[in-house]
Amino acid sequence: MSLSNIRIVLVEPSHPGNIGAAARAMKTMGLENLYLVRPNNFPSQEADNRAVSAVDVLKRAVVTDDLQSAVSGCKLVVGGSGRTREFPLPSLDAREGGVRMAREAAMGSPVAMLFGSEQHGLTNQSLDACSYQLRIPTSPDFSSLNMASAVQLVCYEIFMAAETVESPAEADRASYPSHEELEFFYRHLERTLEERDFAGSINPERVYAKLRRLVTRARPKDNELRLLHSLVRLMGAESWRPH
Prior knowledge:
Mean pLDDT: 90
Shape: globular
Helix content: 40-55%
Strand content: 5-15%
CATH architecture of the largest domain: 3-Layer(aba) Sandwich
């Protein structure tokens, strides 16, 4: 079982009790890498009290000022959200997400699972950092799910999947770019398209969001991303002119 490569990331958690309960939920399922992005109140005695015997998870928690730092180096980022987006991400349920995260963690790749704040969940900007959106089906009569409860459900699915996932042979391991490498490509693409006035009078933010979703759905591997960089460089070359 390989769980050491999996991070649980709480983005702007408001209540320290939920942080402690999330830490306890993680430890019961063998996960101990907790990242907190701009927590409202941490460290906190209330968090320690709710964590019970998982205070060690809180003591090792990494606190960051931005999401980029929390997912640095990750080859897979999954965002837990029931939010409907204009440009949706590929969707997974909790069981599918658990299997995918456990499988990629077994390959030796850092993986991050994101949960949003209690009031608003993950923002669109946070979801932009993700390759997949994880949804937990709930009753239509009451769909609100506590953050710590969502963490428990997802960690359970990761734990169960990790018990059956085997580390693949070296030749079978897919090599995906890190979060930073993908962001660098998006900046390269947007800068080149701006130089060519690609969006014209169209809202450029919408155009770039659509292109980001297109690349995200394809989820290029390392060599494929290098090919895309080459194509973008060709678009920006002075010798190239559209017909």
